[in-house]
Amino acid sequence: MTMSVTNIAENAGPMRGLLPLWVGVFIYALFLLAGNRLLIDPDTMWQITVGQWILEHRAVPETDVYSFTMRGQPWISTQWLAQVAYAKVYAVAGWSGPVVLAAAAIAATFALLTKFLIRRLSESTTLVFIAAALALTVPHLLARPHVLALPVMVAWVGGLIAAADRRGAPSFWLLPLMALWANLHGGFVFGLVLIAPIALDAVLNADLKLRKALALRWAAFAGAALMLGCCTPYGWNSLLASQKILALGGALPLIMEWRPADFGSVGAFEVCLLAGIGLALFRGVKLPPLRIVLLLGLLHMALAQGRATEILALLAPLILAASLASQIGGTETSNSNAAPPLRGVLFASVAIVLVAATFAYASVHRFEPHTRGSPVAAVTRAEEIESRPGIQRLRFRRLSDRQRRCDVYRRSHRTLWREIFCRPQCRQRIDGTGKSVPAARGIQHRGDLDADAECCDQAARSHRRLAESLCRRYRDDPSP
């Protein structure tokens, strides 16, 4: 009986590490079937258009070429490589290209996360973390550049955390990931920032005699990563781009994904947060001091900006894995470099099946952006409202003047301003020119009517003029 159980364990061992494969296959199939959801953000059209511009001009943009109010102003695209990738696949396969590319990147992200977690945690615990991460990231999983950078982020941080867990320095083979990340998305700056606290955690937990040498190795790694982060067409200006975005201050909350977390209704973030707190209190989970700092920093980012929730969902499990494995139980898998032949055949077979299924599904299903957010739909809706014999007036009861202006501004911005300049007929009617603007983006800079940010001054004036001209038709007060 003992021999029988042993043989079963030995035979199951080579196939045990297949959970990342099945997670990746499931995630890919899920987002391929729901492919149109990846195209619900009109920003995807703009990303493809900028990528086409880069391919046509064989250069990266140095000035704003598509926005209406800031045309010709200095502007750089820190995500130029992702834009080129989306433009290339769109040219080859239409809207199926961006959908397949984004779905593959998302699947790779969760497969990598599973691979890192399964080294420490049991399969059931790993799947709980994967399910929570999927629930938190779904709202922001779109065919946009940040999705292509997610697997790079998980691989980068997973490598740093693994080095800190073994009280060593990260492999210099991680450095090419930083060069790739720096050209895919501006979030690479966050990857550079994470080196310092993770290095400090590794050094402080190492033997006293080894700390100096280990600190020097981490410093060398950080310096090399910083240099590779500047290996972009814009050089060190790519590092400053994030600071310019954060400097918008009060204008950032006007963008949905930059708004702070809202707990007015129960959502996935609140459920996962409360469940995590409950687990920590019930099991008495303890973390090293610097891991606590890292976790609280990620939590602060997620509470302050909605778009940072995905960072918390993907990186928090990596930070927690080693400590949880020692306190609630986990598994240590062998690091055998020899891949069993059966696994290689399985991987090849799954890849062939996925490619064939993708071609088959794309041939019978038409992927296309949501028409509700398209430029034509916005202008058509505005024309329908304008042609009505009796326009239903808005009723502003018990609203202050400021609230009234903001409501009118949001209405006009939502229905017209975001895409109105994408249609040549509308733009000709407004500024007297007949130049064709790609149906990709209306305006890039959004200003607040009551904000006094100098960087949005020009955009705010244009917003105010348009909002005032539109709201005259909807006010309860007689038209002036």
Average pLDDT, all residues: 77
Largest sheet: none
What level of helicity do the residues show? 55-70%
Beta-strand residue fraction:
under 5%
Number of DSSP strands? 0
Radius of gyration: 25 Å
Structural class: mainly alpha
Shape: globular
What is the end-to-end distance? 93 Å
Topology order in helix (H) and strand (E) letters:
HHHHHHHHHHHHHHHHHHH
By DSSP (H or I, 4+ residues per run), the number of helices equals: 19
Key phrases:
480 residues, mainly alpha, 19 helices, globular, disordered C terminus
Structural notes for this entry:
The protein has 480 residues and is mainly α. It contains 19 helices and no strands. The protein has helices spanning 2-12, 19-33, 43-57, 80-93, 96-118, 123-137, 145-165, 175-184, 188-204, 211-229, 237-246, 268-283, 289-304, 309-327, 341-364, 375-387, 401-417, 424-431, 457-471. Helix 5 (96-118) runs parallel beside helix 14 (309-327). The protein is globular. Residues 1-15, 333-338, 391-461 and 469-480 have low confidence and may be disordered.
Briefly say what this structure is.
The chain has helices at 2-12, 19-33, 43-57, 80-93, 96-118, 123-137, 145-165, 175-184, 188-204, 211-229, 237-246, 268-283, 289-304, 309-327, 341-364, 375-387, 401-417, 424-431, 457-471. It is an all-alpha fold.
